[in-house]
Design a protein that fits this description.
Blueprint lengths: L1 E6 L5 E6 H7 L2 H22 L1 H10 L3 H12 L3 H9 L2 H6 L2 H23 L1
Antiparallel strand pairs: 1-2
Helix pairs in contact: 1-2, 2-5, 2-7, 3-4, 4-5
Length: 121
């Protein structure tokens, strides 16, 4: 899997990361965790933009399993993102913003870049 990303703001960051190569050559568990987190971060804007529906779905569900399944289907998000969403508190959900997600994404990508440089030396 390749990830190509470009983030804007005060700093512009362009990285292309080949996760298959990284996982094969470097720290597999850490890189897979980064990859899962990046996948969730990619889908959280959907949660932000449908926050009222998300809260209604979670509150009206009879169980966490039902809430996760309904979120995944209705919002077309992964089961992992649905699970993480349901596990968040209401205040965490309502405090999500594109800026916060971009900041976290940048931190992860910079960490990955640092790992790559470390292992290339």
């Amino acid at each position: 899997m390749r990830i190509e990303t470009s983030l804007s703001g005060t700093k512009k960051l362009n990285l292309t990361i080949n996760f298959d190569e990284l996982v094969e050559n470097y720290a597999p568990e850490l890189l897979e965790a980064f990859n899962r987190r990046l996948s969730v971060l990619d889908e959280l804007p959907t949660i932000i933009h449908h926050i009222e529906d998300v809260v209604k779905i979670i509150r009206s569900a009879d169980s966490e399993v039902e809430a996760k399944e309904t979120l995944a289907v209705r919002l077309n998000i992964s089961p992992l993102t649905a699970e993480r969403t349901v596990s968040m508190s209401l205040s965490q959900l309502t405090e999500l913003s594109d800026d916060i997600l971009n900041h976290e994404r940048t931190k992860i990508l910079l960490s990955l870049n640092s790992i790559i440089k470390e292992h290339q030396s």
